[in-house]
């Protein structure tokens, strides 16, 4: 176990997840870097180890109960009880609503919403038994304002925000803090996969005039995981270049 405990970061193979895993390892957590792709998970873990910190790469699909059980078991076996969970796994798919297939919709909710539920359910009992723990869910500013050609993605991220608030009401008194991060457009492979036209239109809308960087989101997660965020309960923080102002 790291000096701050054991952290699981799902979807840690690239983009925001990778940045979060690197930051939390530097903060002092022993990190389980999970990704659907084993090679990517192990590459990030090796990168963390090369920097002198502690990590292990673990493959698994967060929408699968069997895989989730294996991810959490690997974390416990390697580093001890999970004290921090970052539900970051996700993907983006762009299509007008009228062109969405049922399979597109179902997979979007399976990874983002079911995945967040399954991972949280797997670690929450031991956090409550210990009387402390932190859960950070990765939402999106599109879950707050919606996005053209991203109805299913926006809906899934809105669901995560609602789940965050409800769970925080249930478990905060037991010592477990639950919050969400809703980034705006960030320079990641996921956002770069969106059309050039979409990215140009979105960039022009941002008061800050630029997309964010993964490290800027990782700093937000690091804060929410820290004692400095002790009063943050059921909140959704927005490193979003001004796209949403609350």
UniProtKB/TrEMBL annotation:
Family: Belongs to the short-chain dehydrogenases/reductases (SDR) family.
Biological process (GO), any one: monocarboxylic acid metabolic process
Protein origin, superkingdom: Bacteria
PROSITE patterns: ADH_SHORT
Keywords for the protein's UniProt record, in alphabetical order: Oxidoreductase
EC number of this enzyme: 1.1.1.47
Name of the protein in its database record: Glucose 1-dehydrogenase
GO MF annotations in UniProt: glucose 1-dehydrogenase [NAD(P)+] activity
């Amino acid at each position: 176990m790291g000096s701050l405990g054991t952290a699981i970061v799902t979807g840690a193979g690239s983009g925001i997840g990778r940045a979060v895993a690197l930051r939390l390892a530097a903060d002092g957590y022993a990190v389980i870097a999970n990704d659907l792709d084993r090679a990517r998970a192990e590459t990030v873990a090796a990168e963390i180890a090369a920097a002198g910190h502690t990590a292990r790469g673990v493959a698994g699909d967060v929408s699968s109960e069997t895989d989730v059980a294996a991810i959490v078991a690997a974390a416990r076996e390697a580093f001890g009880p999970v004290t921090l969970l970052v539900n970051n796994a996700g993907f983006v798919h762009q299509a007008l609503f009228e062109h969405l297939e049922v399979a597109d919709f179902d997979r979007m909710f399976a990874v983002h919403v079911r995945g967040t539920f399954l991972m949280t359910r797997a670690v929450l009992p031991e956090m409550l038994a210990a009387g402390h723990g932190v859960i950070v869910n990765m939402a999106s500013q599109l879950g707050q304002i919606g996005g053209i050609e991203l109805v299913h993605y926006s809906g899934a991220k809105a669901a995560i925000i609602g789940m965050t608030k409800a769970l925080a009401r249930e478990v905060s008194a037991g010592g477990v803090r639950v919050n969400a991060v809703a980034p705006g457009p960030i320079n990641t492979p996921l956002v770069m996969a969106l059309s050039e036209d979409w990215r140009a239109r979105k960039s022009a809308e941002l008061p800050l005039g630029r997309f964010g960087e993964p490290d800027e989101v990782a700093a937000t997660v690091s804060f929410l995981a820290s004692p400095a965020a002790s009063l943050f309960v059921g909140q959704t923080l927005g490193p979003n270049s001004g796209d949403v102002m609350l």
